[in-house]
Design brief:
single chain, alpha/beta, globular
């Protein structure tokens, strides 16, 4: 698909950032994607593309065809294991592990230390939550859906994985993460009731691990940037930090807002 939308314009962090043709950060542009009515926000986030042009279909594109009430419900009652640890597989394990019989994951073929949530306030209620169009979108899934147990809010969270020894780290920018969650939540809002999870509107959010490039970058921006656009964005987009400790049989993780 040749359609390029706002999130596609960002390059990754690199030691040669200044030589890249694509942008690294655009907090001013992201602020524009948060202001105005829904039509304006979608126009910015989709770079002027019509939603129908982004829908994948072998037949005529019809944005009125939302998927059924089963959308977002995973077909398997248990996790059947993962083969690697991208953000998708990590989010899958975070969703399933505490739902297994007696907290066990006997069928997992890759993760010897499954991710188990010890957060007291935030519950993982879904992963890979899709966009509400029958034929799908190229940019289509919310990585993780979190529920705030205290106030009942639901968050559509864009997640980046932690650093791994001997593996190339994920270098997506903070702007890219913000653009993704803003795009997904705007599309879900556009869908009305079909864009809800448990009858709740999903709020935009990002999350990174404490040992990630994204955490280091965000900490630097938060402490030294002094950019009013960045400050506006972090008031509107929930920013979570994931911390974890490895134990013999599990990786115990906690999720908390950055500013706590």
């Amino acid at each position: 698909m040749d359609n390029i939308i706002f999130m596609d314009k960002f390059d990754d962090y690199s030691s040669k950032d200044e030589e890249k043709e694509r942008e690294i950060e655009d907090f001013n542009g992201l602020r524009d994607a948060l202001e105005g009515n829904l039509n304006h926000r979608l126009s910015v986030l989709l770079s002027g593309n019509e939603i129908a042009d982004l829908i994948e279909s072998t037949t005529r594109k019809r944005i009125v065809e939302f998927s059924s009430s089963e959308r977002g419900k995973h077909g398997d009652s248990v996790c059947k294991g993962v083969k690697r640890e991208t953000e998708r597989e990590i989010c899958k394990c975070m969703f399933y592990h505490d739902r297994q019989s007696e907290g066990k994951c006997p069928s997992c073929c890759a993760i010897k230390q499954p991710w188990t949530n010890i957060s007291k306030r935030y519950e993982v209620v879904d992963y890979e939550f899709p966009m509400p169009f029958k034929h799908g979108l190229r940019h289509r899934n919310v990585d993780l859906v979190l529920k705030d147990i205290l106030d009942g809010k639901y968050y559509a969270v864009e997640v980046k994985p932690p650093r791994r020894d001997n593996k190339k780290p994920n270098k997506n920018t903070i702007s890219r993460m913000m653009a993704e969650t803003l795009t997904y939540t705007a599309l879900l809002e556009f869908a009305g009731d079909s864009g809800l999870k448990d009858n709740k509107r999903l709020q935009p959010a990002i999350a990174f691990f404490k040992d990630s490039i994204q955490y280091d970058k965000f900490k630097h921006y938060n402490e030294t940037l002094k950019d009013p656009n960045f400050e506006y964005l972090v008031r509107k987009i929930k920013v979570f930090v994931i911390d974890y400790k490895e134990k013999n049989e599990a990786r115990e993780f906690s999720i908390a807002p950055y500013d706590e």
